[in-house]
Amino acid sequence: MSIQSGLPADFTPESFDAIVVGAGYAGSVCARRLAEACGMKVAILERRDHIAGNAYDYEDEAGILVHKYGPHIYHTTNERVDQFLSRFTEWTNYQHKVLANIHGTLMPVPFNHKSLKLAFGDEKGERLYQKLVATFGENKKVPIMELREKNDPELSEVADYVFENVFLHYTMKQWGKTPDQIDPSITGRVPVFVGDDDRYFPGAPFQGMPAEGYTKLFENMLEHDLISVFTGVDARDILSVGDSAVTVCGKPYGGEVIYTGPLDELFGSDLGALPYRTLDMVFETLDEDQFQPVGTVNYTTSEDFTRITEFKNMTGQVVPGKTTIMKEYSKAFTPGSDETPYYAILEDQNLELYRRYRDRVAGCLNFHAVGRLAEYRYYDMDGVVASALDLSDELIAQHN
After folding, report:
1. Is 309 left (phi over 0), alpha (psi -120 to 50) or beta?
2. CATH of segment(s) 2-51+222-272+342-399
3. Domain ranges of the chain
4. Residues in the chain, pLDDT under 70
5. Predicted model pTM
């Protein structure tokens, strides 16, 4: 792998078999697979000045490894995804736990046995828990809609408590909605965990943190003689898509193009901008060993921010007397700004707008949109990797 800042004056697209836009998960996975499975020479064009996309991490001034674009916690049930990523990193045994600050009391999320007793007192909480066990069985995630459907006043009381104190206000902050704007089908899926497992991802057999960080994982993934990475390059300056052809540097390009950026931006958002939520992230280094008991605390009933992340609790890094925390403030994404679009707003009119953009590239058989932004959907990290593996499977089959 070679990494260069900017494109060299003698950059010739035709000398590459594939051009990948974006050095995050989707682009990096595809680049690695095409290089090693097909012998393709791959150019990666990355708008930012670093690889690893939103998973990028680095040591701050206090020497603490932080995630620049918000906490990334690896977890998956997909064995193929785990096998692929595990080629490029060792994993720690970190098991993610989240607490909700509910009126000053820290309770496990998803809401579980311990949460019930903290919310309702030991005696009543235990009685409610035993009723949940008798009704649904142990170690089950039960949506609050199912609690309400039992027409049991006590189970409805649990559902109402979780809705009001864990979900409602947090969701209003996260998505900028009023209670009447929140889709009932989503609220009904909010779970209660009938059990004592207080991990946030109890059903994921593969979870942890990359032992040397995410950026190192990406460096290892892109370490291939046939991969060249060009940072600080906005692909829109040299790439355009017509009805049936891709043009790069003013000439038709016949190789494969893998695009992982926002599809509307490729066309100057001329049909309208796809809406997203973004985040303001405020980092603060404190003169103490530990600020909170777990990696993430959600503020579900108070504060303007949604959650606080403490990175040392996730990475296991030892830096005596210092810790770095990050607060997240959710807001609407401003099209054309330098803000990062994090969460697609998956409402019908927005999905229809996305389909109209997608139709405009459908005739370009060598243009492939993949990833969270290019597909306009919410993905966890493993979902992006799975989508990129599927696409690269198709391309490898075509070229071998």
Report:
1. beta
2. 3.40.50.720
3. 2-51+222-272+342-399, 105-194
4. 185-186
5. 0.95
